[in-house]
Design goal:
Shape of chain B: globular
Strand content of chain A: 25-35%
Radius of gyration of chain A: 24 Å
Oligomer: heterodimer
Helix content of chain A: 25-40%
CATH topology of the largest domain in chain A: FAD/NAD(P)-binding domain
CATH architecture of the largest domain in chain A: 3-Layer(bba) Sandwich
Helix content of chain B: 55-70%
Strand order of the largest sheet of chain B: 1-2
Largest interface: A-B, 51 and 52 residues
Number of helices of chain B: 19
Number of strands of chain B: 6
Number of helices of chain A: 11
Strand order of the largest sheet of chain A: 3-2-1-7-19
Radius of gyration of chain B: 23 Å
CATH class of the largest domain in chain A: Alpha Beta
Distance between the termini of chain A: 42 Å
Chain lengths: 450, 451
Amino acid sequence: MHIIIIGNGISGSTAARHIRKLSDHKITMISSETEYPFSRTALMYIYMGHMKYDHTKLYEDWFWQKNNIETVNSHVDHINTDQSKIQLSDGTLMEYDKLVIATGSKSNKFGWPGQNLNGVQGLYNIQDLKMMEAASRKGIRRAVIVGGGLIGIEMAEMFHSRQIPVTMLVREDSFWNIVLPQNESQMINRHILANGIDLRLEEELLEIKGKDGSVSSIVCKNSTEEIHCEFVGLTVGVSPNIDFVKSSDILTNKGVLVNSNLQTSVPNVYAIGDCAELSSPKEGRRNIEAVWYTGRMMGEAVANIICNSSESYDQGIWFNSAKFFDIEYQVYGQISVVLPEGIGTLYWEHPSENKAIRINYEMASKSVIGFNLMGIRYRHTVCEKWLTENTHIETVLENLSLANFDPEFFNEYEQSLMDKYNAINRKNLTLKSKRKLRLVENFLQSDLND
Amino acid sequence: MQPYKSIAISSHHLKEDLPFHQKIALSLVAIGALIQIVFWVGNITANAGLWLYSSLALIVGGSLWYFREQYKDTLPGIKNNGVLFASLTAKGTLAWMLGVVLTGFYVVLYWFPEYLGLGGDGAANSGLVALFDPLSMLLKGKPASQWFVYGTLYTLIIFLMGVKFIYKYRHNRYQVYRTMSIIFFQTAIAFILPEILVGLNLPYNDFKNIWPLNYYFFFDWHINDLIASGLFGYFVLFWGIILFLVVTPVMTYFYGKRWYCSWVCGCGGLAETAGDPFRQLSDKSLKAWKLERWIIHSVLIFVTLMTVSVLVTRFTGFSRIFGIDSYTLSSWYGFLIGAAFSGVVGVGFYPIMGSRVWCRFGCPMAAYLGILQRFTIKLPWFKETKRMSKFRITTNGGQCISCGNCSTYCEMGIDVKAYAQRQEDIVRASCVGCGICSAVCPRGVLRLENI
């Protein structure tokens, strides 16, 4: 059987790797971005000089050949599902038995005047990074970043690392507060400002002005202020990169529509990662989850589905992570911006450092539903187990040290959170567990025996 | 992609020009160094004390000021900005120049100490060695040797670059404590205490230098020296054997080889401090890993055979063991491994091959610790096979984004990412537990643990 994978991002490359683990099928992985898979999340570190491109490759180059995964550096123009063929940009036709579409996202542009000028771009793939590098070499006296999300703050950090002044236009009244609760969001606001970024909240882009084909300034919508700049970063989200699919019979909406087996409307064609749109996602989850982890999990799932044809894609417990300049962020389970009816929240924030812990729980059953961490590392497996088992908040608090994943000798703040809970609820709970790997392993294994 | 240049080591400020205060601070260091060079090249001996202490004060004061200025306006956190653009830290011209200078210095130090001013056969010192006579007289009442000069500079560099390291990782207590430990062991145990012992007419001894790193421990002359000095000598012999046979396995069982390699050891100490700007240069390829295992274990076998033959000669009088004269074997070991590998290549190649070339490819002590750290054993009374150490680096569930920072900044050339992205624990013989992979991870994925 010949399996063709379009796209070599984390979804496509994970699919290829797992299909090889499970079978001897012929695998071809096609990408027009790079010859071998690399970590797109690491693009910022290449610009900042922390790493070179080679450091960001997922595996050494020989890995793919050794595992008999053929890599093709080309672009797919068209899919012919009747003949089970794809057409590359040089006209080559390739026949498949199974096709996996994993083409990721493209940066959104909302039709602003001047959005196609030189120096105006998003940041998604390595070509974007090269453009950013070229623009930086020409000289940027100020960069304006439109959008208050993860890519926006990454871009701000990138320019900041090269001493390039940055103005950030954020539509909301606080950074990323469509995802982060208010306290956490405000912590990030303060940190952005502490880094010397010109952060403009409740501000939007009206138009981009150019000179000789390159950006020269932008006009803000609310203040009508004109800001001179040589670069405009459009980081207002991404959408599925599926234009080439639209000429085929495969049904699409925003993304390529798939069922819980990641199968599209056409048999033997699958879609995974950012470009896949689940027709019926799990309750509380989105149809399209354009995050690294979802892509990787779908890649593994599609390999199982193709090779074993038994399992379906299980979205699992939500988790994510990011880093906002120096503040690490981890989330496990459901953390909503506005507390829904019947949901309680326990929040502790360090008085002087950028550290915070939040645990949300159902008021009635007292079972935990989400963990939000700022500047503190928690164990994925431990949090996930508590969430899966609807563990009582007090049991979680008593054993919270099991979740602590900060390096040795770091201050542990579980007691502080506990004190807060005790004060609010007039309880007298104490920490029962210590931060010890042996105890964690015992805890994680305990469900197997139950 | 190389628009930024900076002469700052592991430059954190990518400004094209150094701030004024840093220029002054750097100038003080340069003047301090220049005094030593002038004494060395010009063969001056007058007023050595005054000039030596002025020189050291300028170097220490200037460096501390420089580092303070470098970090005072930065927020705590990982800032490897421009590391792979800067000439010095990305194998550029400056790196090659520094490599040549360091290599040359080691060649002179080991084989041509007279060019440093060592007065052979009872003659008075001159040049650089003479400049350090006053300090040597102060510590042990004897004139300096080239090794005293080297020891002083070595300790000074670990202290100064250690302070810089602490500034750089001030948000990470593991790094701060570890570096304080390194500075303590180098200054007190490796430098001052042995000099004082010599001053008291006792044999020179570094109490944390363990056979087989300390390859001459069982040499005839060394054992004779120890025995000749009575009770103290017997204690040193006893302690040396206990360190190897008991302390090392027990400590490694509980904490992994890091207790030694990145908390105590002097070679490790230099690599962690002065070598820190170069840690990203280690080769991460599978090829390098294969080569590493061959070379380091060959050195371990070499040092074991050599030591056995020396001891057999001592106790039986037979000089030819394994078909080679034991004296020849030990002098070849001293030349090839003790000097050429650990010194010339080990430190001289920092700017080209990274900071742990010796520790990774050559150190027999690291090989021994690595075996204790990595391998499993199954004893009859065990229910299951057990790891010989509790130490491992664990991966935090599915949080890895394969960015590669961990592998890039692993000085031992371990491809940490290869494990992390597959959610596997990292258990590698070579891991010295420096904790930098965990520190540079932007997603909180790695943790050093003792189960």
